[in-house]
């Protein structure tokens, strides 16, 4: 089964160069130069990963992320030309799983895609179902239930929850989470963890402002309250 | 452009001038008050004494006049019976006959008065000093009781004013002390007012200092005082304008770099693609590709450095701040760059943690190690110590070293040491050390160059960062 990558980028030269590199990896690449075209090309069943440039004519990359998130949990990698906090956090809040800053090496991109695919296809670690409070987590099936109702988590959010529930009550540093969930070594961006924890809380907590499950250990990381 | 101060007495400091003005004002006011009070009190005291003395004098003179009708008047008894006002003494003179109070002799009378009295029918009064004591002398030529009386009869009274003089002396003393006190109060009010007057200037000066140290968002709080408001307003306007200008310059560099990112992305991707297919290229083609690849690397590095260095550092939010273990970070970077350097960590430094941006700090050590590679034949030794409340990372190389005159210069943007002035393969764009400086500064630290501690040839770059909680 080939991996389908949807690359959304308005600069044709960048698109072509990326397609060359990604096809070299043996992946199938479909291209879109605008948000509208991307939504046309996007098929929830067969698109495996979406690459979104933030700066698009018309509706921008943030809008596209939100539109896709309404219909799918597909991994989204955001590409920014600016690495300031505003763009990065806004993109992650809009639903992106990870981000890259231009100019990046195609190898870096394929590594990121591979990390996302790995975590969206198989969840390693112990796959035993577990219960935390009202939550029931089924790692192998990728399902979380709260009071018998299934919660809709993205793959990354789900993976984050699994990592935290592997070590209930124990503080996990952002570095540890970056390594285990995103596959980053020393230099992952802690904001990835922060924003995903925020999104996770919105979905699993009764009151996200006073989280019952995912607690913040100030300056250290996060932990799941047993 | 240098504006001159519009002020006289340019040599005196402002505060001294304020104090001086107040002192002068206070002294002047005190002096006027003293002079006025004294002369008025003296005038009124002497005046009233003179008035009462005159009343007494005329009463006495009338009695003496009455006695003149006697055939051969003898005034001795009369003079003794006359009421004496606070020690007044009298003399009656008729021709060569003189009757007098015991302690008064005719020569005690002022000659002018005697002359004036002899020459007119009016009473005369005059103040003079007798034996150092102020006196009031009064005199009148009496009308002759009979035509037969040929010689004129003169009547004099001398009233001592010593009592008034004593009162005036104590008044002088009181007024003097009062004046001195007033002057003192004037000086202290002047000093206080000078301080108060200068306090807003001190605030402005603090703000200017803060701006000079890179905190461009420093402003002076608005003031209700219309005089101060002008200064505050113009200072803040100046700071605004400067901040805007700095931001604009930074944004320009940043915009240019951003515009370069897209073409760089295409270049990067294409070069990498070609590289993974280099076995399909001819030998010459591969060489050309290598050239292209190394230039793209350099170009990319330059753009990234430019972006990094033109970041508005007032906006702390662009940094992802966290606790960073310096030793861990340095170990990581040394390993990542595959350098074969000796890493020496003092035991106290192993858990030295600073607050900062991990990637920015990584760039500091990367750039130092890379700099050692380029100009110093590779880093030979990295030493981490913990002097006081800071952590110190020293990177040593065995290159030609850096001349003391160039040690500050190399941290400027786009300067290269003389040893590396010719642009050879792998030479950086000249922003590496500027970034080291910029990042350490943003972390509240310092960087400097020394000679190697073991006396060998080579440079020693020392970065010092404040330990978390001790910035």
Structure description:
The complex is a heterodimer of chains A (226) and B (471). By secondary structure, chain A is of the alpha/beta class. Chain A folds into 2 domains: 4-121, Response regulator (Rossmann fold, 3-Layer(aba) Sandwich); 130-224, Winged helix-like DNA-binding domain superfamily/Winged helix DNA-binding domain (Arc Repressor Mutant, subunit A), CATH 1.10.10. Helix content of chain A is 41%, strand content 21%. In chain A, the strands form 3 sheets. A 5-stranded parallel sheet of chain A has the order 2-1-3-4-5, sandwiched between helices. In chain A, α4 runs parallel beside α8 (190-204). The mean pLDDT of chain A is 87. Chain B contains 9 helices and 12 strands. By secondary structure, chain B is of the alpha+beta class. The relative contact order of chain B is 0.07. Chain B has helices at 14-67, 76-81, 111-118, 162-212, 226-276, 283-309, 326-336, 358-375, 432-442, and strands at 89-94, 97-100, 124-130, 133-142, 153-160, 321-325, 342-345, 353-357, 379-385, 390-397, 446-451, 459-466. Chain B folds into 3 domains: 19-169, PAS domain (Beta-Lactamase, 2-Layer Sandwich); 226-309, Helix Hairpins; 319-466, Histidine kinase-like ATPase, C-terminal domain (Heat Shock Protein 90). Chain B has a 5-stranded antiparallel sheet with strand order 2-1-5-4-3, with helices on both faces. Chain B has a 5-stranded mixed sheet with strand order 7-9-10-12-11. The chains are: A alpha/beta (226), B alpha+beta (471). The A-B interface holds A 11, 13-14, 17-18, 20-21, 24, 81-82, 84-85, 102-107, 174, 186-187, 189-191, 219 and B 258, 261-270, 272-273, 276, 300, 303, 317-318, 320, 322-323, 332, 358-359, 362.
């Amino acid at each position: 089964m080939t991996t389908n990558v949807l690359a959304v980028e308005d600069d044709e030269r960048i698109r072509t160069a990326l397609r060359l590199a990604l096809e070299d990896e043996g992946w199938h690449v479909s291209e879109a130069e605008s948000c509208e075209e991307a939504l046309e090309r996007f098929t929830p069943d067969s698109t495996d990963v979406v690459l979104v440039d933030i700066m698009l004519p018309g509706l921008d990359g943030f809008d596209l992320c939100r539109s896709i998130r309404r219909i799918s949990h597909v991994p989204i990698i955001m590409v920014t030309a600016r690495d300031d906090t505003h763009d990065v956090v806004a993109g992650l809040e809009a639903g992106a799983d990870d981000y890259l800053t231009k100019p990046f090496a195609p190898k870096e991109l394929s590594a990121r895609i591979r990390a996302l695919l790995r975590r969206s296809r198989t969840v390693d670690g112990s796959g035993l179902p577990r219960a935390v409070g009202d939550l029931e987590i089924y790692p192998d099936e990728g399902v979380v239930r709260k009071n018998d109702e299934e919660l809709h988590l993205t793959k990354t959010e789900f993976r984050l929850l699994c990592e935290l529930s592997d070590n209930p009550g124990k503080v996990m540093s952002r570095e540890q989470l970056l390594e285990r969930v995103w596959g980053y070594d020393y230099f992952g961006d802690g904001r990835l963890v922060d924003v995903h924890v925020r999104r996770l809380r919105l979905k699993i907590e009764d009151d996200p402002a006073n989280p019952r499950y995912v607690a913040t250990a100030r300056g250290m990381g996060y932990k799941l309250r047993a | 452009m240098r504006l001159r101060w519009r002020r006289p007495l340019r040599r005196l400091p402002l505060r001294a001038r304020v104090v001086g003005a107040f002192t002068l004002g206070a002294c002047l006011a005190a002096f006027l008050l003293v002079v006025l009070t004294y002369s008025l009190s003296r005038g009124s005291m002497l005046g009233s004494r003179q008035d009462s003395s005159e009343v007494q004098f005329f009463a006495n003179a009338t009695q003496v006049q009455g006695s003149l009708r006697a055939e051969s008047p003898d005034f001795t008894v009369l003079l003794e019976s006359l009421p004496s006002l606070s020690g007044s003494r009298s003399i009656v003179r008729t021709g060569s006959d003189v009757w007098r109070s015991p302690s008064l002799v005719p020569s005690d009378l002022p000659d002018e008065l005697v002359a004036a009295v002899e020459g007119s029918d009016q009473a005369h009064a005059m103040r003079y000093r007798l034996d150092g004591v102020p006196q009031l002398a009064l005199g009148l030529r009496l009308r002759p009781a009979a035509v037969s009386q040929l010689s004129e009869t003169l009547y004099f009274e001398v009233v001592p004013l010593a009592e008034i003089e004593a009162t005036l002396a104590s008044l002088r003393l009181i007024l003097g002390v009062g004046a001195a006190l007033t002057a003192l109060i004037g000086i202290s009010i002047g000093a206080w007012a000078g301080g108060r007057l200068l306090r807003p200037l001190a605030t402005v000066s603090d703000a200017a200092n803060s701006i000079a140290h890179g905190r461009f968002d420093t402003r002076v709080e608005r003031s209700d005082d219309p005089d101060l408001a002008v200064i505050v307003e113009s200072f803040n306007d100046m700071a605004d304008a400067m901040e805007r200008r700095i931001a604009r310059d930074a944004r320009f560099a940043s915009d240019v770099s951003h515009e370069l990112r897209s073409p760089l992305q295409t270049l990067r991707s294409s070069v990498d693609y070609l590289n993974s297919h280099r076995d399909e290229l001819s030998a010459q083609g591969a060489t050309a590709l290598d050239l292209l690849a190394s230039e793209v690397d350099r170009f990319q590095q330059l753009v990234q450095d430019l972006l990094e260095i033109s970041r508005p550092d007032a906006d702390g939010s662009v940094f992802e701040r966290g606790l960073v273990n310096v030793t861990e970070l340095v170990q990581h970077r040394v390993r990542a760059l595959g350098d074969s350097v000796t890493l020496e960590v003092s035991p106290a430094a192993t858990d030295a943690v600073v607050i900062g941006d991990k990637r920015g700090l990584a760039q500091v050590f990367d750039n130092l190690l890379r700099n050692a590679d380029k100009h110093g034949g590779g880093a030979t030794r990295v030493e981490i110590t913990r002097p006081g409340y800071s952590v110190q990372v020293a990177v040593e190389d065995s290159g030609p070293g850096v001349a003391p005159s160039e040690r500050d210069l190399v941290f400027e943007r786009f300067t290269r040491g003389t040893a590396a002035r010719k642009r050879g393969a792998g030479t950086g764009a000249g922003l590496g050390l500027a970034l080291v400086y910029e990042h350490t500064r943003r972390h509240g630290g310092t960087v400097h160059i020394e000679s190697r501690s073991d006396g060998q040839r080579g440079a020693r770059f020392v970065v010092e960062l404040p330990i978390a909680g001790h910035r």
